[in-house]
Specification:
This protein is of the alpha+beta class. The chain has one domain (46-183): Endonuclease Chain A (Endonuclease, Chain A). 41% of the residues lie in helices and 21% in strands. The chain contains 7 helices and 8 strands; from the N terminus they run H-E-H-E-H-E-H-H-E-E-E-H-E-H-E. It has an 8-stranded mixed β-sheet with strand order 1-7-6-5-2-3-4-8, with helices on both faces. Helix 2 (46-55) runs parallel beside helix 3 and helix 3 runs parallel beside helix 5 (100-108). The termini are far apart.
């Protein structure tokens, strides 16, 4: 009897584990619209492409950054905020402690910085610009927002413009991470 009960528990646990390992249903594809701009470092100027996209923002710039040490990208975010553009950053907890100077500077300039401590690594490297408008943009790729990503590493960056469903998807993902992130204190 005990053996049968043990085997039944084993089957129940195995069924639960198998269900947990099932992949999520695929995201339904949607039509590609808009334009695409790309850069491969160190040959191309991915940082300049990113800065130009931030400088062109009219309403909103939302960043998720794993590592953020690129001074000119930080300056572009501060310029956008000073133009009245909504700017906010979600940073990886460990990386934000490892490179506090840039983070501290944007916080002191009035840009809200949130820390995502829920994950082993908040490894997203994205910027969402002007969501909800036809001219929205998503910046993504392997490019960390660092000097090294531009000058020392082999990285890629994409700017995808004019695809509202894509912008909405990245915006909604940004909001999901915002919900479990906490504000970085100005005293840091």
């Amino acid at each position: 009897m005990y053996m049968r009960l043990q085997f039944g528990v084993f089957l129940w646990l195995a069924a639960g584990a198998a269900a947990a390992l099932q992949p999520a249903p695929p995201v339904a594809p949607f039509a590609a619209t808009g334009t695409l701009q790309y850069a491969f470092t160190a040959e191309d100027h991915a940082d300049e492409m990113i800065i130009a996209a931030i400088d062109a923002a009219h309403r909103q710039v939302l960043m998720q950054a794993y590592s953020f040490t690129h001074r000119r990208i930080a300056d572009a975010l501060v310029r956008a905020a000073s133009r009245g553009v909504e700017v906010a950053i979600i940073a990886d907890e460990e990386q934000s402690r490892a490179s506090p100077a840039i983070i501290r500077d944007v916080v002191h300039a009035g840009v809200p910085v949130l820390v995502d401590a829920q994950h082993a690594a908040a490894h997203n490297k994205i910027i969402v610009i002007d969501t909800g408008y036809a001219d929205c943009a998503v910046i993504t790729g392997s490019f960390n927002f660092t000097y090294a990503a531009q000058h020392r590493n082999a990285e890629n960056a994409l700017v995808l413009r004019g695809n509202p469903p894509l912008c909405d998807a990245y915006f909604n993902n940004w909001r999901r991470h915002q919900a479990h992130s906490h504000p970085l204190s100005k005293s840091r």
